[in-house]
User: Which sequence fits this backbone?
């Protein structure tokens, strides 16, 4: 599929979408409710100290999980950081609260910056799809303990992980709209396609990281083949589902000459 010039606002659209949604994530998921009482300086100072201390303990927990594994308990984490478990419970309600804080920090400092950087690349369509998928698989494969502690938890931090996926789906949808619009194709399904792509990749990677049966490079290439095939079919139908249904892509004929 030919690659026309990339719209100059494509990268900006992706970054802006991610920035807006990231701020929403911070405010809705983890920012504690604080009574803004101007006359109560002690309360404000305690809240500032609490947030600073939570950040320090969150960073320490990430280091602990990298060293100890995703199933590390509160006792193990506290011991690795060099504090008592009582200190952890002073700043986090429970392990789920700690995991949620770790997830947000991991998403903000590691996952989203690298994905948005890849997504914002001023490169052709296929290299862009391949780069984004390879970056995500590389993030997971090089830091599996933190990934499994954060993005793969059944409760607590799962809400944060789900919103992180929504953030990236929003940025991906912006890029799809820009690139499809540059071809005069319909962009009506961009949000649905983006959500489906993110869901397919994250679910497949979640299963793979639990029991890797191939290299990260091979895994990324398999996912690239699937996602790129869908992108090509969408573009060839100009983003029109009726046109797609009327003339769906067909399998190549089987060679029966032998």
Assistant:
């Amino acid at each position: 599929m030919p690659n026309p010039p990339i719209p100059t606002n494509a990268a900006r659209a992706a970054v802006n979408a991610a920035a807006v949604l990231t701020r929403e994530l911070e405010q809705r998921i983890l920012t504690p409710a604080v009574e803004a009482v101007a006359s109560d300086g002690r309360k404000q100072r305690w809240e500032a100290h609490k947030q600073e201390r939570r950040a320090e303990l969150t960073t320490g927990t990430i280091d602990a999980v990298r060293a100890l594994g995703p199933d590390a308990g509160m006792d193990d984490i506290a011991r690795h950081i060099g504090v008592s478990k009582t200190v952890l419970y002073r700043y986090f309600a429970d392990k789920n609260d700690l995991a949620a804080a770790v997830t947000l920090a991991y998403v903000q400092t590691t996952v989203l910056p690298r994905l948005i950087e890849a997504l914002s690349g001023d490169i052709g369509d296929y290299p862009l799809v391949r780069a984004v998928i390879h970056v995500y698989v590389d993030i997971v494969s090089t830091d599996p303990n933190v990934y499994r502690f954060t993005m793969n938890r059944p409760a607590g931090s799962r809400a944060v992980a789900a919103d992180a996926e929504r953030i990236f789906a929003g940025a991906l949808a912006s890029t799809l709209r820009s690139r499809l619009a540059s071809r005069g194709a319909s962009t009506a399904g961009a949000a649905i396609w983006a959500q489906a792509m993110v869901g397919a990749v994250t679910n497949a990677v979640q299963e793979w990281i639990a029991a890797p049966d191939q290299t990260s490079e091979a895994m990324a290439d398999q996912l690239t083949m699937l996602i790129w095939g869908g992108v090509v079919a969408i573009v060839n139908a100009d983003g029109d589902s009726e046109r797609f249904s009327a003339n769906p892509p067909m399998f190549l004929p089987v060679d029966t000459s032998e």
